[in-house]
């Protein structure tokens, strides 16, 4: 029976003190039969699903609230996605936007773990009918 294969992206929040180099070195030190590639946002790892998940557990211990992971649909170096074959970075715009939002996500995760309210925005109340009429009158002039 063939081993399930998985490729994962490890994305480090911009507010984390952990570097992509530290993640890559940790993965190498684990002695697992997986491939690791350092990237500007973290790393990519691939191999048997069980070994990849063992590595993820170790990686997340570096900074649990600020290291994120997601499955990558293509293996490392796949010619359909690799910029060495395209001259550009397909999908990088999406990843870059997600990366920018991570500092907000890690802030919320940390606050929730401390039992703090994550969102302090008051809920808007009902608009009084009188105010609605004033708005309609202003717009219809």
Give a written overview of the molecule:
The protein is of the alpha+beta class. It has a single domain (5-113), classed as Alpha-Beta Plaits, CATH 3.30.70. The chain has five helices and four strands. The protein has helices spanning 20-29, 49-60, 83-86, 92-113, 129-140, and strands spanning 5-12, 34-38, 42-48, 67-71. A four-stranded antiparallel beta sheet has the order 2-3-1-4, with helices on one face. Strand 2 and strand 3 (42-48) form a beta hairpin. The protein is elongated and about 70 Å long. The model has no long low-confidence stretch (mean pLDDT 84).
Key features?
single chain; 141 residues; alpha+beta; Alpha-Beta Plaits; 4-stranded antiparallel β-sheet; 4 strands; 43% helix; 18% strand; elongated
Radius of gyration: 22 Å
Q: What spatial order of strands do you see in the largest sheet?
A: 2-3-1-4
Q: What is the domain total for the residues?
A: 1
Biggest β-sheet description = 4 strands, antiparallel
The run of helices and strands is: EHEEHEHHH
Strand content: 15-25%
Can I get a quick summary?
The protein is 43% helix and 18% strand.
What layout of secondary structure does this protein have?
Layout: E1 5-12, H1 20-29, E2 34-38, E3 42-48, H2 49-60, E4 67-71, H3 83-86, H4 92-113, H5 129-140
Antiparallel strand pairs: 1-3, 1-4, 2-3
